[in-house]
Write a structure and sequence with these properties.
Shape: globular
Oligomer: single chain
Largest sheet: 5 strands, mixed
Distance between the termini: 72 Å
Strand order of the largest sheet: 2-4-5-7-6
Radius of gyration: 25 Å
Order of helices and strands: HHHEHEEHEEHHHEEEHEHEHEHEH
Number of strands: 12
Length: 427
């Protein structure tokens, strides 16, 4: 800048040129980040599409006429798919945190890395969520040959508002670590809730084990990205050393913390806390927290916009088992044309060739008459809250994140059909 002031020719234009160049460099630096985000989103979508198949088939098998041993196997398949879905969420969140940290280091603003994650605000039942985590713990502990114990307080609030997908992902990571590092004894899950300030509830979930334990120095290493407690532990048990970093940051985003106490050779105790608001009276679980309700009164004719051949097979299997008939199209343009024939419900994948699911929904809503009011359920493998907001703004009636189980899809179908019929009925 000092040299530019000594120039006699065009003294006012030189600083402008100097500012323009760094701006272009900053823009070029941002492009790879946004491209990386798009790649991660596509990667997560493809993984969750496949996981929907594993989860759905596991749930359908578990509900069929199986022996007790085979039923446990099916439950193990379902639990594994749910766990992989949780891991996918943590990996994507970790990548966002890392990208935000890198960007913050290059700017004076210095935004926090945790700010890269935007939490959902869905009503959900903490008991249902914790029961599902307890079932996952029991299945994993049985496969490992160790005990599983659960103590969930009876006085948990009926409904809270928060991000049930990420909350479950965090807890799944903790129980996965506990089972992995326990060779003998048991893993215990405890949950309780106490009143907190400003109408919130402090939810505390503690996972304790009788495994190898940790020293104070090893605990410090746990919260460094891609670091294990020690080289020996990494060699014996594997793992990327990534999950706890994200779990701790999720806890802080939820107004809580992740506390660790341990004694080498005697096990470890991880306490995850979150401060969450109570849901309004009468609130129903929404988004990923939706729970099964009564099935639609009659079989439905459903249009499915899904370009993934594997995803089509799985959706057709689920819908057939639920008693419905499905027609499939592979692009947004085809979906808009097909809706004109008339369907009870449209299942719209957000990621489609040509126009995406959002634009297809907007065009359907622009159709005249009953066709333009067709119930639309959005389905996606992404977990960004902005996607759900965009889906609602485009005109979708319900929004599901993959992996989608038969019971969750059945609940969504029942909800949109009920709401649609209520609007059509005279008051």
């Amino acid at each position: 800048m000092g040299r530019s002031k000594s120039k006699k020719a065009k003294p006012k234009q030189k600083p402008a040129a100097q500012t323009a160049k760094p701006d272009r460099r900053r823009a070029r630096r941002r492009e790879p980040d946004s491209g990386g985000e798009a790649v991660l989103a596509a990667f997560a979508h493809d993984i969750r599409t496949a996981l929907t198949g594993i989860l759905a088939l596991g749930e359908l098998l578990a509900s069929s006429n199986l022996g007790e041993r085979e039923r446990r196997w099916a439950a193990g398949i379902k639990g594994s798919a749910e766990h992989l879905g949780a891991l996918t969420t943590l990996v994507i969140d970790a990548a966002r945190i890392d990208a935000a940290k890198t960007a913050a280091a290059k700017t004076a603003a210095g935004k926090t890395a945790a700010g890269a994650i935007t939490l959902q605000r869905d009503a959900f039942s903490p008991r249902r969520l914790l029961d599902a985590v307890a079932q996952s713990l029991a299945a994993r502990a049985e496969m490992k040959g160790v005990g599983a114990e659960t103590a969930i307080a009876a006085d948990l609030p009926a409904m809270l508002v928060g991000d049930p997908v990420r909350l479950r992902a965090a807890l799944e990571n903790l129980i996965d670590n506990a089972v992995k590092f326990t060779e003998r004894g048991a893993v215990r899950l405890e949950a309780r809730a106490t009143p907190a300030a400003r109408g919130r509830v402090k939810l505390v979930v503690t996972i304790s084990d009788t495994g190898i334990g940790l020293s104070a120095a090893e605990i410090k290493r746990l919260f460094r990205p891609f670091a294990q407690a020690s080289a020996e532990i990494a060699r014996r048990f594997g793992g990327a050393g990534l999950g706890l970093v994200v779990v701790e940051r999720l806890a802080k985003l939820m107004g809580g913390n992740l506390a660790v106490t341990s004694t080498p050779g005697r096990g470890a105790r991880f306490s995850f806390s979150a401060r969450l608001p109570l849901a309004p009276a009468g609130a129903a679980a929404g988004g990923a927290g939706a729970q099964p309700k009564a099935a639609p009164a009659k079989p439905l004719t459903i249009l499915c916009a899904e370009d993934n051949p594997y995803g089509r097979v799985i959706l057709n299997t689920i819908l057939t088992e639920l008693g419905h008939r499905a027609d499939f199209v592979g692009s947004g343009e085809e979906a808009v044309e097909a809706v004109k024939r008339g369907y009870d419900v449209v299942l719209m994948d957000l990621t489609l060739p040509g126009i995406d699911g959002l634009e297809a929904t907007r065009r359907i809503r622009a159709l005249a008459g009953e066709r333009g009011r067709s119930p639309i359920i959005g389905i996606t493998g992404r977990s960004d809250s902005a996607d759900e907001q965009a889906a609602r703004a485009a005109g979708m009636d319900f929004y599901l994140r993959k992996p989608v189980s038969p019971s969750t899809l059945g609940a969504a179908l029942a909800a949109v059909v009920h709401a649609h019929n209520a609007l059509r009925s005279p008051s």
